[in-house]
User: Fold this.
Amino acid sequence: MWLIMLQLRDLPTQEVLQRFAQRYPAADVTAIASFLMLLRVATDLSVALDACLSKHDLLQGRWWVLILLMREADLTSTPSVLAEKLGVTRATMTGLLDGLEQGGLVQRISVPEDRRSVKIQLTAAGQAKLDAVMPDYYTRLRLCMRGLSEQQRNDLQAILGVIDHGMSAWDFNQ
Amino acid sequence: MWLIMLQLRDLPTQEVLQRFAQRYPAADVTAIASFLMLLRVATDLSVALDACLSKHDLLQGRWWVLILLMREADLTSTPSVLAEKLGVTRATMTGLLDGLEQGGLVQRISVPEDRRSVKIQLTAAGQAKLDAVMPDYYTRLRLCMRGLSEQQRNDLQAILGVIDHGMSAWDFNQ
DNA sequence: ACATTATAGTTAGCCAGCTAATTATGTCAA
DNA sequence: TTGACATAATTAGCTGGCTAACTATAATGT
Assistant:
């Protein structure tokens, strides 16, 4: 499953937040401000990533599939597993793989042991594409994060872990 | 402009990250790990938000429009301004407003001074919808963030600010 | 053994973003 | 004043997610 998130260019002022908190007593002002900023920065990062990938004729979904394949020792996986790891439906994965196979970046290989299943393998061209994209991506990401100390990087991951854990409370009734 | 981001259910192990870093010297392992976790948590939050809103028959885009209107003292704005604040195209805003107007949550009011423009106003029904949704949303958000100390909330916002600032480096050539 | 159920992948059609073009109106300079 | 340009909103058509339904194959239980 994919997420559609907006850019939220306009964060609320403290005064507006206070006004909302007055009308809605459940509001936790610092929680809201942190949440909105988190969404905004993440969205900006993803938009920037899209821009970077588009220069290499790639879309984010297909690029992630290539990366997932490269993570495997034998550069191979199956549509179902890839779909699960990427958080998309199997139907969506079929479309992603169609595009990648058409571009010669992956190939479908039939599996005799289980004729329902298909192996997906990163091709040499797929690896070459990653070798072209990843240094660009990593360089930008390094520059983007260069202002953060190791301490801050650890803090960030710890904080995100707490939020992630707290999110189980989101579905407190249903 | 909206962002499409995947759920990234499967973060790379330290061992995989090391292997990538060996092939691509530009890689900054802790930067990558922080980045991926940031994307994942933000995506999970947005998916959870979608689920919450859907119980009130709302989609995220339309809901943000209602909030933007409620932030205004006169509960009024224009399609162009709303589109800019939300980070979507004006064409997209037309569609969002069509849906909201059809549901009676906003109304279009013609502007005599500039006959090209239209005023968008939150209706009583729109305010009532927000009054139904916001306490639910704020309560969930509070629970979700309850594990974070005030210190951590400040740290998070500071860290996100640094990333946001560093992101100008993303487009270092184009 | 064979009917039922589960699983892998695909197809068909929907939905809400997007870009590009269109209409209408306002602004400004020669 | 009028021709060129700018701006506000909309429409038309594209794209890449999604769900639901389908085919084929495997596993299971009586």
Remarks:
- DSSP finds seven helices and four strands in chain A.
